[in-house]
Design brief:
The protein has about 280 residues and is α/β, with parallel strands linked by helices. The protein has one domain: Luciferase-like domain (TIM Barrel, Alpha-Beta Barrel). It has helices at about 30-45, 65-70, 80-90, 105-120, 135-140, 150-165, 225-235, 245-260; strands at about 5-10, 50, 95-100, 125-130, 175-180, 185, 195, 200, 215-220, 235-240, 280. A seven-stranded mixed sheet has the order 1-2-3-4-9-10-11, covered by helices on one side. The chain is globular, with a radius of gyration of 20 Å.
Length: about 280
């Protein structure tokens, strides 16, 4: 069994009114709050603590945030990297995964941020790739409207290509640290990316050497037809929605395995039965 904890860096649990319970902790703006969660998960033998995220507070009702703020409905959304660092430093084995958007970020920044995190956590970091959700997020980044669905995934495909290219710009044994000769690293094993595509230009090399696990794990949860193709191409850990019945779950699992194979990757093993966590590792092939 693989155990994954679904978390949000906010003032309440997934149940929005949970902050009103008499025994709910109120120190959600402190590292100790998230470190307690991390230690509890590690003691319970969880494999991964996973953070969802959104880049705007709920304000679609009447185009106003007042009711959300008044009732504490997920209005606190902390940046994930400091939280993941704090949780990782409080544990030894727990994987820490966090969400960063390809629509409102740049590839070099994401590559550098998650590669650094992976070093600090000894190879326990994962990046959940999303394309964001709505116009409220767009407005926070100076855009009039959220981009069209399929074009977001087209951009995300190139985004991930650039991130992976940067993560591969240092070879595993590039660092030499030869004090006698004064050779810190072998220049022949550090490479420019020189990516020029439709959406991005990025030169490189990345300023962060290879991490203990090579690079962070890629998480994806695409559910639409285009999203599923994206997940099959890149995902190494796939989240799925709760299916209405076992037959539906088996068909969906078989379809994603077939899509993974169409991308020339090794599909996950098994006979099409979904595990209890609702996730399937898509492999790194």
């Amino acid at each position: 069994m693989v155990l994954v904890a679904f978390l949000q860096a906010q003032n309440c649990s997934n149940y929005p009114a949970s902050w009103r319970h008499a025994e709910t902790a109120t120190d959600f703006l402190t590292p100790g709050y998230f470190q307690r969660i991390a230690r509890t998960l590690e003691d319970a033998k969880f494999h991964l603590a996973f953070f969802d995220d959104r880049l705007a507070m709920p304000d679609r009702y009447g185009d106003d945030f007042a009711e959300s703020v008044r009732h504490g409905i997920r209005v606190v959304k902390l940046d994930l990297i400091p939280l993941m660092t704090a949780m990782g430093l409080a544990t030894r084995h727990l994987g820490i995964g966090g969400t960063y958007s390809t629509t409102y970020s740049l590839p070099f920044h994401v590559a550098r941020t998650f590669a650094t995190l992976d070093h600090m956590l000894g190879g326990r970091a994962a990046w959940n790739i999303v394309t964001s959700l709505n116009d409220s997020e767009a407005a926070n980044f100076g855009e009039d409207a959220h981009p069209e669905h399929d074009s977001r995934y087209d951009r995300a495909d190139e985004f991930v290509e650039v991130v992976l290219g940067h993560w591969d710009s240092w070879e595993d044994d590039a660092i030499v640290l030869d004090r006698a000769t004064g050779l810190f690293a072998d220049p022949a094993k550090v490479h420019r990316l020189d990516h020029q595509g439709k959406w991005f230009k990025s030169r490189g090399p990345l300023t962060v050497p290879r991490s203990p696990q090579g690079r962070p794990v890629l998480i994806q949860a695409g559910q639409s037809g285009r999203g599923r193709r994206f997940a099959a191409r890149w995902g190494e850990l796939l989240f799925v929605l709760f299916p209405p019945n076992l037959g539906f779950a088996r068909r969906a699992y078989a379809e994603i395995k077939a899509e993974v194979a169409r991308h020339g990757r090794d599909p996950p093993g098994g006979d099409g039965q979904c595990d209890a966590a609702g996730v399937a590792g898509a492999g790194k092939g």
